[in-house]
Amino acid sequence: MESNPTRRFVRRAPCKSNPARRVDIRITDMRAADAAWWDRKLGPYHRLDRTRADRRWVWSALLPFCRVIQQRKQRTCRALVIWARDGRRFVRVGMSIVIEDYPHVDVTDRSHSNFVWFISAADSDVLKYRHGVSDPPSLGRVLIDCALVSSEDAGFEGRISLHASLDGGQRLLDFYLKRGLIRLAETAQLPVSVRRRNDGRFFYANPSVANSLARDLDPDR
Amino acid sequence: MSFFRHLDTKGPAEMGAVLEAIVRLSTLSEERILELVSEGGLEDAFPFEPNTEELPADSVAEEDLQEASVKSLNRVGREELIQACLPNEGSRRRIERLAAELARQEEILRAADLRD
């Protein structure tokens, strides 16, 4: 199945409480103010949840850090914010930072991919009870999809790679498996330029998987 | 390397520290950086202060959202976003913490190289 480089970002996501229903979402490039808002308004609640891999992430520092570090490596980062409709207005509900044009972690496929570096979805209870959002969306697949469609557009046929933070434990591994990503065998080599040992927590999507995942969300674009 | 043009190397010591942090931390793999961030060590390792004076509103109207394109940003777009988050002045204490963190990072790197 061929990739479709004309796909755009999704504009609807399933409701967390009722996946049959959809919530309008919009995606924008992340600015410093978005990161500051996230840290101040959601960060304190996320920090209390010991199951969250992102509980200590400080987006205000992460955003400039990722951009300049990757610029020094002569790569580029794309940082996005996902907003969900609440009545007539939109609120921030997800954040992501993707490295563009990264070596694909599956060395049997000597291509490049987008590397999903940091993704975070706001806790739905915090959105609901602290920010009055009536229908928080489920964002797992949307966050992956943003990297997939950017990869398609860049000519990488939807290939993406990521490393599941150790802090996320088994729960995070299950999260990515459930979303259809392929887990790189722990015995597999990594591209030389990745410069790390494979700890069994790398995942990827090849063009076929990417196209299948993206196609599932096509009605919501 | 346009970002580095914006760093005035004769400017406040903090800028030099930021530059040093970038040089040192860019030797780490993305996986290691993810670990560092997840451990909560980023603020100490990277003395950036956001340029945001005031928090933005909790919500915005749809017409005020500028939707992103799937296309990669062009050079001008990227530079604008980087400019928008250049650091404010940091404190000397942060720089001292940075130096300590860099030393720790170097030890970790050295240990990792030995292990590999």
Walk me through the structure.
The complex is a heterodimer of chains A (221) and B (116). Chain A has 221 residues and is α+β, with helices and mostly antiparallel strands. Chain A has a single domain, classed as Aminopeptidase (3-Layer(aba) Sandwich). Chain A has seven helices and eight strands. An eight-stranded mixed sheet of chain A has the order 1-2-3-4-5-6-8-7. In chain A, strand 4 and strand 5 form a beta hairpin. The longest helix of chain A has 15 residues. The model of chain A has no long low-confidence stretch (mean pLDDT 91). Chain B has 116 residues and is an all-alpha fold. Chain B has one domain. Helices cover 55% and strands 3% of the residues of chain B. In chain B, helix 2 runs parallel beside helix 6. Chain B starts with a helix and ends with a helix. Chains A and B meet through strand 2, helix 1, helix 3, strand 3 and strand 4 of A and helix 2, helix 3, strand 1 and helix 5 of B.
SSE map:
The complex is a heterodimer of chains A (221) and B (116).
Chain A lengths: L11 E3 L7 E8 L2 H10 L1 H5 L11 H14 L3 E11 L2 E15 L8 E10 L2 H8 L8 H15 L5 E4 L5 H10 L3 E2 L18 E4 L1 H11 L4
Chain B lengths: L1 H5 L6 H13 L4 H9 L3 H4 L13 E3 L13 H9 L8 H24 L1
Helix pairs in contact in B: 2-6
Give the tally of structural domains of chain A. Answer: 1
Provide the CATH top-level class of chain A: Alpha Beta
Side-by-side strand order of the widest sheet of chain A: 1-2-3-4-5-6-8-7
Q: What is CATH's topology name of chain A? A: Aminopeptidase
Q: Largest beta sheet of chain A, briefly?
A: 8 strands, mixed
Instruction: Tell how many strands the DSSP assignment of chain A holds.
Output: 8
- Give the overall silhouette of chain B: elongated
Count of all domains of chain B: 1
Are there runs of chain A of 5+ residues with pLDDT below 50, and where?
Answer: none
Instruction: Write down the secondary-structure element order of chain A.
Output: EEHHHEEEHHEHEEH
- Proportion of helical residues of chain B: 55-70%
Chain pair forming the biggest interface: A-B, 66 and 52 residues
Q: Distance N terminus to C terminus of chain A? A: 19 Å
Rg over C-alpha atoms of chain A, rounded to the nearest angstrom: 17 Å
Low-confidence stretches of chain B: 1-13
- Strand coverage percent of chain A: 25-35%
Given helix and strand content, the structural type of chain B is mainly alpha
Tally the helices of chain A: what do you get? 7
Estimated radius of gyration of chain B: 17 Å
